C-alpha cells in the first residue's frame, strides 16, 4: 500500500516537473510582453503596452506577419489542391509500382526542403528568375510538402468506399464533377488536416525564406524575429517576446477554428 | 424503356478469376428479371458489366438497339442501386434524389420539384431534409430507389437491394418493389442470393453458378422443373429430394423402393441406367399405410414449418423428406410412406433434366 502511494507520488512529481518544463516558456511568452524591461525570468507583469507601441513603430514587424500569412495560405491552397488531385488518382487508378513511387516521393521530399538541396534549389530559383519572389518561395515550399500530403490524403481516400463515386459515375458525372461533388466533401476533414499542417509548417519555416528572400519587405515573421536586436547586439527581449506572442496567436486560433469546424482525423500512413 | 441483351459476355478479372463465362441473355423491355445464385457466382460482376463499371473481356452488351459495350457508364442510360445504397452522406435526401438531375444540368427549382414529387411517391415527404445517416435501413433503401427513379433511365439495376433490411421489412419491401416496378414498367435486373426473393418478385429469372447461367425461366418453371441438379438443390425453401436410382424396366429403383417413372421421362430412359430421382417434399403424399410406388421407412425427424410439418423418413439409410399438413403429422419412430406425385417428380441423367 505504501509502495503504491509512494509510486503515485513519484509519478505525479515527475509529471509536474515535466509540465513545468514546458509551461515556463509559455508563461514567459504571455507575461513578458506586458512587462517593462523584461528579462529571462518569468515575472508578474506590470501590464504596460509600451512594448506593443514599440513594435508598431518597427518598420518590418507587422508587415512580416502579413507576409507569413501570404506565404502559408498560398502554400496551403496549392498543397491541398494538388495533393487532393494526386491522392485521388493514386488511390483509384491501378498503376504498376504505385506504392514504390509513393515511398520514393516521401523519401525525396525530406531532401527537397532539407539542407542537402539548398544550393541546387537556390541556383534553380536564380535561373527561373524566382529568387526574391514570394510566389517562387510558395512553389518551392509546396513541392517540399506535397509528397507527405499526398501520402496522408491517399490514406483518407483509400478508406472512403468506392461505391459513392461509382454511383455518381453511373449517373453520368465526369471525373472532375465526382471529385468536386463526392470525393472532396467526403474527405473534407482530411483536407482540413493537410491545410493546417501546411500552414503550421510554412509559418515556422525559417531556412527557406531566409535563403530565397533577400528583400526585407518580403520576409516573413520567422525571418524578422531573427533581426530583433538592440543596438548593443543583445537580443531585444521586449520586442522578441511581444513579436513572439503576436506570431503565435494566429496559429493557435487556426487550430481552434479548424478543430471545431471539421474535427481532426489523422491516420497518417497507418492502415486500419 | 429498353430491352437488355448480352451476347457471349465474358469477364476475366486481372489475376485470372473468370467471373462471367460467355453469358447469353435477353431481357425484354419492361421485364422484372432476377439474377439468382450463391455468393461469388458473378452476379455483381454481371450487373457492373451491364452498367459499365467493369469492362467486358469479351462479348457485347446491347441496351435498346445500341451496342454499349465500349460506352462509359454515364452514357448507357441505366441507373443502379448499390448493395450499400451509396447515398451521399454529406447531402440531404432532396439533394441525393436530385443529384442525377444536377448532373444533367436541370435547373435548381425543377430539381427540387422533381425530388419532392418522387420522394412523395415513395413516402419520404417528412424526411427530405435529413442526411442518410439519420435514416433507417428501409428509409435509405427508398431514398436509393427514389434517386434511381429520378434519373428516368432506360433500365434499372439493383444489387441485392433487400439484403440490408431485417427479415420483416424485407417482406414489405419485396411487395413494394414489385408494385413499383409494375407501375413504372422500367426494365429491371435485380440480383439476389435469396431464392424466395427471386421466386416472389421476378417475371423471369436466371440461376447462375460460377459464371455460368444454369437455367432461365419463369419462377414457376424454375421451381417446378429445375433444369439440372444444381438448380434443383438451390431453389425451394425446403430442399428437393435428390435420390440416386437405377432404371429397372418401366420402373425406377430408388433407395431400395420401386417408384413409377415420372410422366415427363416416360420412354426416354434406358434399362439399367443410373439416374438421380428428384421430387420436392411439397409434392409428396404422406401416409401411414403402405402404398404402391411409395418410399417407405421410419420417421426420423419432424420439423414444424408453421402450417405444415417437414417429415424426414429414413428409407434404407437414405433421407427422404415430405411435407405433411398440420394435424396429421406422425411421431418420430412411426412407419411412414411418401408417395411422389408422378406429374411433379423429375429424373436427372448426368445432372441434366430428362
Ligand atoms: N475486383 C475484382 N478483382 C478480382 N476478382 C474479383 C473482383 N470482384 C469480384 N471478383 C471475383 O469474381 C467472382 C464473382 O464475384 P461477384 O460478382 O462479386 O459475385 P456475387 O455478386 O455473385 O457474390 C468471385 O470469385 C470474386 O472473388
Ligand atoms: Mg454481390
Automatic annotation (TrEMBL), chain A:
Q: Name one GO biological process term.
A: transmembrane transport
Q: Check the record and name the Pfam families matching this protein.
A: BPD_transp_1
Q: Which keywords appear in this protein's UniProt record, sorted alphabetically? A: Cell membrane, Membrane, Transmembrane, Transmembrane helix, Transport
For the ABC transmembrane type-1 domain, which residue ranges apply? 65-258
Q: How does it sit in the membrane?
A: Multi-pass membrane protein
Q: Which residues cross the membrane?
A: 9-30, 65-88, 100-122, 134-153, 190-212, 237-258
Q: Which domain of life is it from?
A: Bacteria
What InterPro entries does its record include? BP-dep_ABC_trans_perm, MetI-like, MetI-like_sf
> Which GO CC annotations does the UniProt entry carry?
plasma membrane
CDD domains in the record, alphabetically? TM_PBP2
The record's subcellular location field reads: Cell membrane
Tell me the protein family, please.
Belongs to the binding-protein-dependent transport system permease family.
Identify the PANTHER family for this entry.
Answer: INNER MEMBRANE ABC TRANSPORTER PERMEASE PROTEIN YCJP (PTHR32243:SF18), MALTOSE TRANSPORT SYSTEM PERMEASE-RELATED (PTHR32243)
How is this protein named in the record?
Carbohydrate ABC transporter membrane protein 2 (CUT1 family)
Q: Which organism is it from?
A: Nonomuraea fuscirosea
From TrEMBL, chain B:
What this protein is called in its record is Carbohydrate ABC transporter ATP-binding protein (CUT1 family)
Recall the GO molecular function terms of this protein's record: ABC-type ferric iron transporter activity; ATP binding; ATP hydrolysis activity
- SMART domains named in the record: AAA
Q: Which Pfam families match?
A: ABC_tran, OB_MalK
> What keywords appear on the UniProt entry?
ATP-binding, Cell membrane, Membrane, Nucleotide-binding, Translocase, Transport
In terms of InterPro entries, this protein maps to: AAA+_ATPase, ABC_transporter-like_ATP-bd, ABC_transporter-like_CS, ABC_transpr_FbpC, ABC_transpr_MalK/UgpC-like, Mo/tungstate-bd_C_term_dom, NA-bd_OB-fold, OB_MalK-like
GO cellular-component term (any): ATP-binding cassette (ABC) transporter complex, substrate-binding subunit-containing
Please give the Gene3D superfamilies that the UniProt record associates with this protein. 2.40.50.100, Nucleic acid-binding proteins, P-loop containing nucleotide triphosphate hydrolases
Q: Is Magnesium among the key words of this record?
A: no
In this chain the ABC transporter domain maps to: 4-235
Amino acid at each position: 500500500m505504501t509502495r503504491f502511494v509512494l509510486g503515485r507520488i513519484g509519478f505525479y512529481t515527475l509529471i509536474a516537473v515535466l509540465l513545468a518544463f514546458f509551461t515556463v516558456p509559455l508563461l514567459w511568452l504571455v507575461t513578458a510582453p506586458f512587462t517593462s524591461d523584461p528579462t529571462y525570468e518569468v515575472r508578474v507583469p506590470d501590464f504596460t503596452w509600451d512594448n506593443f507601441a514599440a513594435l508598431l513603430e518597427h518598420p518590418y514587424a507587422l508587415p512580416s506577419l502579413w507576409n507569413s500569412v501570404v506565404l502559408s495560405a498560398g502554400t496551403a491552397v496549392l498543397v491541398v489542391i494538388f495533393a487532393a488531385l494526386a491522392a485521388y488518382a493514386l488511390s483509384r487508378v491501378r498503376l504498376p509500382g504505385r506504392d514504390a513511387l509513393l515511398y520514393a516521393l516521401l523519401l525525396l521530399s525530406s531532401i527537397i526542403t532539407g539542407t542537402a538541396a539548398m544550393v541546387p534549389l537556390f541556383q534553380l530559383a536564380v535561373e527561373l528568375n524566382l529568387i526574391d519572389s514570394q510566389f517562387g518561395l510558395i512553389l518551392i515550399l509546396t513541392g517540399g510538402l506535397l509528397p507527405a500530403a499526398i501520402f496522408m490524403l491517399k490514406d483518407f481516400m483509400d478508406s472512403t468506399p468506392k461505391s459513392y463515386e461509382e454511383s455518381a459515375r453511373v449517373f453520368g458525372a465526369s471525373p472532375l464533377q465526382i471529385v468536386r461533388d463526392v470525393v472532396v466533401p467526403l474527405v473534407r476533414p482530411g483536407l482540413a488536416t493537410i491545410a493546417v499542417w501546411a500552414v503550421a509548417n510554412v509559418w515556422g519555416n525559417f531556412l527557406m525564406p531566409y535563403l530565397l528572400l533577400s528583400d526585407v519587405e518580403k520576409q516573413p515573421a520567422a525571418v524578422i524575429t531573427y533581426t530583433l536586436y538592440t543596438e548593443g547586439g543583445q537580443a531585444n527581449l521586449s520586442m522578441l517576446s511581444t513579436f513572439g506572442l503576436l506570431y503565435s496567436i494566429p496559429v493557435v486560433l487556426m487550430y481552434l477554428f479548424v478543430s471545431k469546424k471539421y474535427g481532426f482525423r489523422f491516420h497518417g500512413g497507418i492502415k486500419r | 424503356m429498353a430491352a437488355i441483351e448480352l451476347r457471349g459476355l465474358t469477364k476475366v478479372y486481372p489475376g485470372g478469376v473468370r467471373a462471367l463465362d460467355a453469358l447469353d441473355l435477353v431481357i425484354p423491355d419492361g421485364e422484372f428479371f432476377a439474377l439468382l445464385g450463391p455468393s461469388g457466382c458473378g452476379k455483381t460482376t454481371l450487373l457492373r458489366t451491364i452498367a459499365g463499371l467493369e469492362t467486358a473481356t469479351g462479348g457485347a452488351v446491347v441496351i435498346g438497339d445500341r451496342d454499349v459495350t465500349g460506352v462509359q457508364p454515364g452514357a448507357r442510360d441505366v441507373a443502379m442501386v448499390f448493395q450499400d445504397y451509396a447515398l451521399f452522406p454529406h447531402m440531404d435526401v432532396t439533394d441525393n434524389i436530385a443529384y442525377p438531375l444536377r448532373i444533367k444540368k436541370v435547373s435548381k427549382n425543377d430539381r427540387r420539384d422533381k425530388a419532392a414529387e418522387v420522394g412523395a411517391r415513395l413516402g419520404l415527404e417528412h424526411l427530405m431534409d435529413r442526411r442518410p445517416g439519420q435514416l433507417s435501413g428501409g428509409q435509405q433503401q427508398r431514398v436509393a430507389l427514389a434517386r434511381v427513379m429520378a434519373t428516368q433511365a432506360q433500365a434499372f439495376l439493383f444489387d441485392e437491394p433487400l439484403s440490408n433490411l431485417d427479415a420483416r421489412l424485407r417482406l414489405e419491401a419485396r411487395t413494394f418493389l414489385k408494385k413499383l416496378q409494375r407501375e413504372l414498367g422500367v426494365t429491371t435486373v435485380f440480383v439476389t442470393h435469396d431464392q424466395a426473393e427471386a421466386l416472389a418478385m421476378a417475371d423471369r429469372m436466371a440461376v447462375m453458378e460460377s459464371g455460368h447461367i444454369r437455367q432461365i425461366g419463369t419462377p414457376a418453371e424454375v421451381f417446378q422443373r429445375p433444369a439440372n441438379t444444381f438448380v434443383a438443390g438451390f431453389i425451394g425453401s425446403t430442399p428437393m429430394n435428390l435420390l440416386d436410382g437405377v432404371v429397372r424396366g418401366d420402373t425406377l429403383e430408388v433407395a431400395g423402393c420401386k417408384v413409377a417413372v415420372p410422366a415427363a421421362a416416360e420412354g426416354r430412359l434406358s434399362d439399367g441406367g443410373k439416374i438421380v430421382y428428384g421430387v420436392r417434399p411439397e409434392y409428396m403424399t404422406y401416409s401411414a399405410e403402405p402404398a404402391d410406388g411409395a418410399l417407405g421407412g421410419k420417421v426420423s425427424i419432424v420439423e414444424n414449418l408453421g402450417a405444415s410439418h417437414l417429415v424426414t423418413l429414413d428409407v434404407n439409410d437414405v433421407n427422404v423428406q415430405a411435407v405433411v399438413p398440420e394435424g396429421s403429422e406422425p411421431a418420430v419412430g412411426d412407419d411412414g410412406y411418401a408417395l411422389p406425385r408422378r406429374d411433379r417428380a423429375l429424373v436427372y441423367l448426368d445432372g441434366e433434366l430428362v
